Amino acid sequence: MDKRTDTATDARFTSAAGRGPGAAMLTAYAQLAAAMSLVGVNVGVAKTLAATLPIAMIVGLRCLLAVALLLPLSLWRDGLRLPPPGALLNLFWQALLGTVLYNAALLLGLRLTTALEGGLMLATIPAAVALGAALLLRERLTPRGWAAALLAAGGIAAVTLARGGGGEAGGSLAGNALVLLAVCGEAAYALLSKRLAGRLPVVTASLWMQIFSALLLLPAWLPLALPWPGAAGALADPLLAGLLVFHGLTASLFSLLLWYSGLRRVPAGLAGVFMAFLPASAAATAVLFLGEPMTPAHLIGFALMLASLLLATWPSRRRA
Questions:
Q1: Distance CA 131, CA 114 (A)
Q2: Best exposed site among 13, 120, 143, 313 by fewest CB in 10 Å?
Q3: Using an 8 Å Cβ cutoff, are 104 and 95 in contact?
């Protein structure tokens, strides 16, 4: 590497305020950690919302809010841009599986199980993506991938045993199964997104996915809200309305922007490690704010799932 390259690299990681090399990378790490922490916190928020509002209304209003925010952002950053037909079809399937199926199964599952166990189930997403790539895309599953899948299965078994078969810790087999269905939807979304990688700007792709999601959900939730007050009357409660706005902003916009801002400096392989913040923040929210109990079996399940997540996402040693 010559001096010009060295200088450009140093300049990229040094701010105008004179922070030393590495400050920009630390900022990127913080962005990735914040993105996954917001996703984890939203497990507890979603459980609170699902206890009062119809599931279709929660997801539908969240998508409408996301469209209202992403539309001007997309016009400002990318201009008025209609994706090609093949990309639109791909975004439709991403919306159906990654938004509608994922959120419907997650919220319905959280009605039956605890936010703690739901958050732990979401830690299996990297293992599910690896298995899906092996089964559907015929990608070779490495020994690390198999080990991650086995650890994830062990974590699921530990969480199931945590209830002692009697639901004493508040969990539910049916609820956990629905959250695992949500994991499958998110894994399918991740695999579909590979097709569009680099072909569309992130904000534009997110906008069209949210548009498709809102259109798919509109027939399900609009009749529930009309005539006023209908089910939407519950939103007269400022706390509930605030939680819904927080859920929409953080789950559909802020976590996305933080994640992709961090990816500008951090390699995708290393960024996956920050998914560990998802189950950790979900567990902390469930225990500290929702008062859910954590048993030793839960701790074992958390350790196994965290090991699975790190094993599936930790970058391999290789020379650039």
A1: 26
A2: 143
A3: no
Contact 170, 111 (CB under 8 A): no
Q: Which residue has the tokens 């959120």?
A: 103
Q: Give the separation between CA 26 and CA 8, rounded to whole angstroms.
A: 18
**Which amino acid is located at 269 in the chain?**
G
Tokens of 55: 């599931």
Cβ atoms within 10 Å of 236's Cβ, excluding its own: 9
Nearest CA-CA partner of 121 in 65, 197, 184, 200: 184
Residues present in the chain in total: 320
Q: What are 253-296's pLDDT values in tens digits?
A: 898 889 888 888 887 667 778 888 999 999 999 999 999 988 88
Pair 88, 79: CB distance under 8 Å: no
Q: 106 near 251, Cβ under 8 Å?
A: no
**Gap between the Cα atoms of 58 and 225, Å rounded:** 11
C-alpha span between 288 and 245 (Å, rounded): 22
Nearest CA to 243 out of 278, 290, 186 is that of 290
pTM recorded for the entire structure: 0.84
